[in-house]
């Protein structure tokens, strides 16, 4: 970790909530949900107890990744308004505690997932933790404007891990279709945020696209990635896990997302500042629901398929 001047309050005793926040629970909720959907839509069922234990250990692995990320990024988190109140930069949790928690939980999650499910799923979980903590956090995030593009793979693996829990297989196009859905969603989601957060990434010297190539280029990239995302999202509806509910929802949601991306593309900074980046904020807020709605639709179709309705 680079040098930082974190102000630690030696009189403060960390609470359970501080350690829980270290695990990035909001990110964890998306990981848990997409992994659960990946498990449930797979063609091979698992015993409910094995499924429950597997999702629990995937969640622990996601939390471990979050703790390692907060340990490494404490210096830049303290600079950015959006992250300054996180447990480590705010001084509520010591950096060495965050590192220890992250490492212990990583080993625990991988070993227990191997015992509960299989080594294929466990190996992919281990790779995911490594990719997020080392490849993304320690390397890509501070070295290239492609940080979000490549680093998005870390958040895209959970449904594939869930699929592997059920099948022990990593070759299904349907599983990698779910991966592509998250992977392609990540750049426009974060770039919309970067557009209205304005100086945060500049202040932290993080080479986000808005910093290295400017806001005009970022707006173009938001549109391009959203177009590609829409094609893949609708395409998932034609795989073995797709169905009428998903396909209908995907068409409607991606039409809205494309409309928002087009509006972002047409704007300049004068227009954006005039309405306090309302369009960019609106697209970002919708993107927060985008994956939950898509994966929820996959789950509905799987339920209908199991009931013999479709």
Automatic annotation (TrEMBL):
It is found in: Cell membrane. It is an enzyme of class 2 (transferase). Pathway: Porphyrin-containing compound metabolism; heme O biosynthesis; heme O from protoheme: step 1/1. GO terms for biological process: heme O biosynthetic process. It comes from the Bacteria. The chain crosses the membrane at residues 27-46, 52-72, 98-116, 122-140, 147-166, 178-197, 218-239, 245-265, 286-307. Keywords: Cell membrane, Heme biosynthesis, Membrane, Transferase, Transmembrane, Transmembrane helix. It catalyses: heme b + (2E,6E)-farnesyl diphosphate + H2O = Fe(II)-heme o + diphosphate. GO terms for molecular function: protoheme IX farnesyltransferase activity. One of its GO terms (cellular component) is plasma membrane. InterPro entries: Protohaem_IX_farnesylTrfase, UbiA_prenyltransferase, UbiA_prenylTrfase_CS, UbiA_sf. It is a multi-pass membrane protein. Its EC number is 2.5.1.141. The keyword Membrane applies. The keyword Signal does not apply. PANTHER family: 4-HYDROXYBENZOATE SOLANESYLTRANSFERASE, PROTOHEME IX FARNESYLTRANSFERASE, MITOCHONDRIAL. Belongs to the UbiA prenyltransferase family. Protoheme IX farnesyltransferase subfamily. Interacts with CtaA. Carbon 2 of the heme B porphyrin ring is defined according to the Fischer nomenclature. Converts heme B (protoheme IX) to heme O by substitution of the vinyl group on carbon 2 of heme B porphyrin ring with a hydroxyethyl farnesyl side group. This is Protoheme IX farnesyltransferase.
């Amino acid at each position: 970790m680079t040098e930082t001047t974190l102000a630690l309050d030696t009189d403060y005793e960390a609470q359970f909530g501080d350690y829980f926040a270290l695990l990035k629970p909001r990110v964890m909720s998306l990981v848990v949900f997409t992994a659960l959907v990946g498990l449930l839509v797979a063609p091979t069922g698992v015993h409910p107890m094995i499924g429950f234990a597997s999702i629990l250990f995937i969640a622990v692995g996601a939390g471990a990744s979050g703790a390692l990320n907060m340990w490494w990024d404490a210096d830049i988190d303290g600079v950015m308004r959006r992250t300054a109140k996180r447990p480590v930069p705010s001084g509520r949790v010591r950096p060495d505690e965050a590192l220890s928690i992250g490492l212990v939980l990583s080993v625990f999650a991988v070993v227990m997932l191997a015992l509960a499910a299989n080594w294929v799923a466990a190996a992919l979980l281990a790779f995911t933790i490594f990719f997020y903590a080392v490849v993304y956090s320690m390397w890509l995030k501070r070295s290239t404007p492609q940080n979000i593009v490549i680093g998005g793979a870390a958040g895209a693996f959970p449904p594939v891990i869930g699929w592997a829990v059920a099948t022990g297989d990593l070759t299904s196009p349907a599983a990698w279709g779910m991966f592509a859905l998250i992977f392609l969603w990540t750049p426009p989601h974060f770039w919309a945020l970067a557009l209205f957060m304005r100086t945060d990434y500049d202040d932290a010297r993080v080479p986000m696209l808005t910093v290295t190539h400017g806001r005009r280029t970022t707006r173009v990239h938001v549109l391009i990635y959203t177009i590609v995302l829409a094609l893949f999202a609708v395409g998932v509806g034609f795989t073995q896990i797709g169905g009428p509910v998903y396909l209908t929802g995907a068409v409607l949601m991606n039409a809205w997302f494309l409309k928002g991306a087009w509006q972002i593309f047409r704007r300049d900074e004068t227009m954006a500042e005039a309405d306090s980046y309302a369009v960019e904020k609106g697209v970002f807020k919708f993107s927060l629901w985008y994956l939950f709605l898509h994966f929820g639709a996959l789950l509905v179709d799987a339920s209908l398929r199991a009931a013999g309705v479709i």
